[in-house]
Amino acid sequence: MSWSSPMSWEEWMSEGLNSDFLGSKSPEIGDPRLRQGVLGTLDITAATMANIGPAMSFYFGFGFLAYTAGLASPLTIIAAGIAIAFLGNTLSEFTKVLPSTGGFISFVGKTFGGRTAVTTALLTGAGYIAAMASVIAISGGFFQYLLQYYGVSGLQSVPWIIWTIIFLAFGAFMMMRGISISTKVAGLFFAFEMLVMLVVAVLALIKFHAYITIKPFEPSHILGGFKGLAAGFPLAVYLFIGWENSAALAEETDNPRKNVPKAVFTSITIMVIAYVLFAFSTIVGFKNNIANLTSTSVVVPFLNVAHGVIGAVAFFAFLAGMTSTVGALIAGTNSQARLIFNAGREGLLPKFIGKVDTKRRTPVNALMFFLAVSLTIIAVWGLLHIIGGHATSGGMSATNFFFESSTFGTILVLVVYALSNLALPFYYRKHHPELFNAFRHGVLPIIGLVVIAVPMYYLAKPGQLTPYDWFPWAALGFIVLAVIYASVLVKRDPAIGDRVGSIVADE
Fold this sequence. Notes:
Blueprint: H1 9-18, H2 41-52, H3 54-69, H4 73-97, H5 104-112, H6 114-149, H7 160-177, H8 179-207, H9 226-238, H10 245-248, H11 256-285, H12 290-293, H13 301-309, H14 311-345, H15 364-387, H16 398-431, H17 438-460, H18 471-492, H19 496-499
Helix pairs in contact: 1-8, 2-8, 2-11, 2-14, 3-9, 3-14, 4-9, 4-11, 4-16, 4-17, 5-6, 5-16, 6-7, 6-14, 6-15, 6-16, 6-18, 7-8, 7-14, 7-15, 8-11, 8-13, 8-14, 9-17, 11-13, 13-14, 14-15, 16-17, 16-18
């Protein structure tokens, strides 16, 4: 069923609940495949943008971006969008010839062999789990902030971890119901947050129209020039994390070779335009005063703007933040858990991860494993703060964890992005020489590699505050361990290389 099909609410719910049982291709018991062809282009596009979580990402990211890049921070967002488009080319070109639930794992492994495939699977799993842990935590943290902001008596003192577990349980339930219904729920949440943010942005531009100027789009107003642009670049790139969501849904998508690339570029384009509008309206709402926008007293600049427009609008902006975090939790876990699921069924990771629920055709073990490890990361982080005596100093806030866990996860994900760009020309030369195009398969991925080097440098450079200063070393240590594990595993099972990418989404 595609989102464009007109139907009543009752029919929509029935279709959503049952389409995972009545898909176009119904696997037999014991078949490792997911349900094929149950998602349309609009489904995976909406899921991708829900994974990006524009409200969540912009709410917590733009203040830091403006602090780093200054008045012309919208230009940093545009630069990041262009950079993501280069990565989108790599993902799209791979998907055209090898649509796979394994995504980057299959692409890199098919190019460089079994050891690299296992290493990439471990990096991908760890990176996305760490990033998703930050989303899971902020779902409860943001709800606690909402309750405290509006002074809801009796609930203000409830620890954020309690709300986190409640929202996690809801997300897990929806995902277990199947990809169709959970994708639609995430898509509805995304539609709500986008509508609210667009209304706030337009109203802010109308109310504060006297402060509209082109200065936010003039390079001369980037704080520190190119250095400021580069320093803010990692923050701007993080706004788009999740853009690759649709690739992991290839097996459950009709015509993935065509629809996945379409979803990738549509999502990137819409998000660039939306983020630039949100950034510009936020700056205008603060009357072009970056010092006030980045003040420590301002937790979420966009919410301040919403409150300055109309108080009632601010309440809906808060709700948009909630739907964004929960939508990102559902859409992100759905996609990212499928990456490790595919690695499990191909033998790159423990095989129990690659099991499919025989009734709903969902990767239930991978979903549970993914969420359990994410929750464990949050628990360990909290325990370390308690042991270190920082339990009551504000260090255990969900916001702190969000930035810390997402930063570490992003480092590992960027490494995977880099490997994928490196693999593209070699893959086409090796497997599809007749389709090789020097520009698409040579020049563009090289530019993509250069682009990735910028945020990698700023995330890994010395002199950062603790714990960010040791994240690069932790990532390097994890990479070394992953390579060692991969070497041992491939030595025990030399056939791994042949199984990588063996399950093609539309075959």
